[in-house]
Write a structure and sequence with these properties.
The chain is an all-alpha fold. Helix content is 75%, strand content 0%. It has two domains: 212 residues; 73 residues, no CATH class. The radius of gyration is 19 Å and the shape is globular. The two termini are 33 Å apart. The chain has 13 helices and no strands.
Length: 300
Amino acid sequence: MSTNQPQWESSDVPLLGIGLLLVSTVLFAAQDVITKQLTASISVPQILVVRFAAFALFALIYASRKRGVKQAIASVFPKSQLARGLIMCTEIGLFAYAVQFLGIAEIHAIFSCFPLVITALSVPLLGEQVGWRRWLAVLIGFVGTLIIVQPGTGVFNPAAVLALICVLLYSYYNILTRKVSKRDSFETSLLYFGLVGFVASLIAVVGRWQALETQTVILLCGICVTSVSGHMLLIKALEVTSAVVLQPFNYFILVWAIVFGYIFFGEVLATHQVLGAFIVVASGLYVGIREYFISARKPG
């Protein structure tokens, strides 16, 4: 699962950016497969501390090359940056717990509604204006989510509630990211994300560390490689192509999740889940297209 989405002006090479983003979605889906495999042998806090250790190291190296760590650590919104790190650490942990009980494709089908949640939350939290067309898309996407999870029926999986909590946390994380990005640099946000997540997961793993088998070490290395390389590609994609152009292609992670879920775990989405996912993705794409045209009309 992608954990950070920087936004800045691009040099506009759309095909390259889209290609890089698509590769990153493959890596993030592979990361979730590895996470599901790891949860069968070690605790979630142990997975988190290794993952955030690698990401914190990546963030330190990236910040030192761009601006210097001392400059990057200085934030205009330190409390919001701390909150971002804690929220995302919690979200990733809950995602790891949820993926023990839900299929990779199933959890990503639910998670695909997060752009719609961000649109809804941006009104009360950021004071943004959302027209009736986007509100309608949010409502339709909500219906699609209900079709996926089917609350109140015999097929409802209580673990889906964890996935929905993850969606809310990830959406709020993105709202905070929008807020801090107005004054803080991307390097600052990346550094706080990595360091806060590492410290939080380090505290959580106290008393829960267990000896690692060779296969587990290999899988932990895999999750570090996919996480760091996925974010490197995402960063490069956003350097060469605007975020509003790339946003629709983030849905490809659902495609890879369906493919990987079938290959590694024999997962097949039920008909109602496919229908719900189609509705959610279509609604999200519509919101993305509307935001693209609205941003294109703005002066400057």
